[in-house]
Design goal:
Length: 104
Amino acid sequence: MNKIRKGDQVIVLSGRDKGRRGAVLQVLEDRVVIEGINMVKRHTKPNPQVNRQGGILEHEMSVHVSKVAIWNPATKKADRVGFKTLANGKKVRLFRSNGEMLDA
């Protein structure tokens, strides 16, 4: 079970975008793609077969998962994630600082 999942709000801990927040768009093995973070420019050729225009396109690149932390809206700070198994056998994620569950 991953500590960070698609749709989670995260904050960047280091690098060019330090302190910026965004939603996770995609989770790769040890990397995450975050909305509006780590933007790069790519020179792309036009491809009429797939109806794609050419030019300089800007899109998000992945960031290593160790450089991001999950955003805790209750404390308004970055937080660590722990796991807990409930009485019914379901495994849930929770914030380490206040014990509040992420998955309800």
